[in-house]
Amino acid sequence: MFDLDRLQEIWVTITRNKVRSFLTCFGVFWGIFMLMIMMGAGHGLEHGMMENLEGFATNSCIMGADNTGLAYKGFQKGRTWNIHNKDIDILKQSIPEIDCLSPMLFGGRSDNNVVYNENSGSFNIRGLNANYTEIEQQKMSFGRFINDIDVVQARKVCVIGLKVYEELFPMRGNPLGHYLRIRGIYYQVVGVSSGVSNVSIGGRSDESVVIPFTTMQRITNRGDIVDVLAVTAMPNISVSVVEEKMEKVLKNNHNISPDDTQAIWGFNLEDEFNIFKYLFLGIAAVIWIVGSGTLLAGIIGVSNIMMVTVKERTKEIGIRRALGAKPRAIIGQVMSESLVLTAMAGILGLSFGVLCLYLADVLWLQNAEDVFLSNPIVSFSSAVTSLVILLVCGLFAGSIPAARALQIKAIDAIREE
């Protein structure tokens, strides 16, 4: 005859153990799942930011003139001054650390300033040197970029951005050789380009029209004035060194106080890249700290449930000890159960986290615009490292219940009975 009360007690015990095991495994699962999601998001943010800067020289800076901030050598404070073509030659001769020095002019953006047949639009006009591509890489869709002959001969040629081409040439034909009217003057199209990076100096490349800077000086009656100097440093030389020397030379050439911090403005891309570098290192550290805390909570749960399991199996363990079971067998049993729980939950959490990142990338990020996240993946080495750490923690979580199991004696099993 069956003892219904005993069967009900056994069923409740089994069900309770399953619920506890599930909740404990879910804690570990959630911990490594969140760690994978945060690591993937951190990588995606870093990749997205670097992708926006890709194609722009990391060891570069730009520099321009501003009103003076100090009186010097009889000149009053607030004096207006300009960089000239002769400054370019002086800078090249006096600063050997300069690798590329490219002058720039900006023509501004006015209503319908660029016209082709019946089509017109408002675009940025930039006067550039041929070596500007060493500062900002250009992706050519048609033709070529401005070359040295264009600059020397001050040719009336232009390179249009991709969006300029799409708006002025709606039929998407070959624009090379056609003439655009820019502020009443005709220029022949020699190329269609778009910047590789999203960094813009005087406007985005795909929304700009580029002409030789010498041509722009003559057409706009600017003389030999240069608006901005873009420069890169020699390999293994910090651009900050070049920037400091350029400021000294320019201040000396134009009678500006060495202590004047207002007269020359600059933007150092190397400093910006370093800021991003340390920012992402900090983000990675925070991710590991938060993720490790979440994992630790799950591991503590594993340790607790193993302690409960050992307590509930006091009779079984005591009898096994009485029959001659060796301590390593008892330890192996408890720790293997802890390791299996941790491994199963950890592998499931890791796999599900990677799957979610993959789906987010394929279904959303690849088709989204103006999103800083890109390619949010977890590297294989990071995933393996996380799993190894989790398994080691799982073994550690089982060591305390295993030590408790070794303290159980045969007499305890009798008392339990």
Overview of the structural elements:
With 417 residues, the protein is α+β, with helices and mostly antiparallel strands. It folds into two domains: 18-54 and 274-416, no CATH class; 62-267, no CATH class. Helices cover 52% and strands 18% of the residues. It has eleven helices and 14 strands. The strands form two sheets. Strands 1, 3, 4, 5, 6, 7, 8, 9, 10, 11, 13 and 14 form a twelve-stranded mixed beta sheet that branches. A two-stranded antiparallel sheet has the order 2-12. Strand 4 (114-116) and strand 5 form a beta hairpin. Helix 1 packs antiparallel against helix 7, helix 2 (85-94) crosses helix 6 and helix 9 packs antiparallel against helix 10 (380-406). The longest helix has 50 residues, at 4-53. It starts with a helix and ends with a helix. Mean pLDDT is 80; it is low at 9-14.
How is this fold's topology laid out?
Layout: H1 4-53, E1 60-65, E2 83-84, H2 85-94, E3 98-108, E4 114-116, E5 119-121, E6 124-128, E7 138-143, H3 148-152, E8 157-161, H4 162-168, E9 179-182, E10 185-195, E11 208-212, H5 213-219, E12 225-226, E13 228-233, H6 239-253, E14 264-268, H7 269-312, H8 314-322, H9 327-363, H10 380-406, H11 410-416
Helix pairs in contact: 1-7, 1-9, 2-6, 7-9, 7-10, 8-11, 9-10
Oligomer: single chain
Structural class by sheet pairing and helices: alpha+beta
Rounded mean pLDDT score = 80
Helical content band: 40-55%
Q: What distance lies between the first and last C-alpha atoms, to the nearest angstrom? A: 22 Å
Shape: elongated
Largest beta-sheet details: 12 strands, mixed
Point out poorly predicted stretches: 9-14
Percent of residues in beta strands:
15-25%
Number of strands: 14
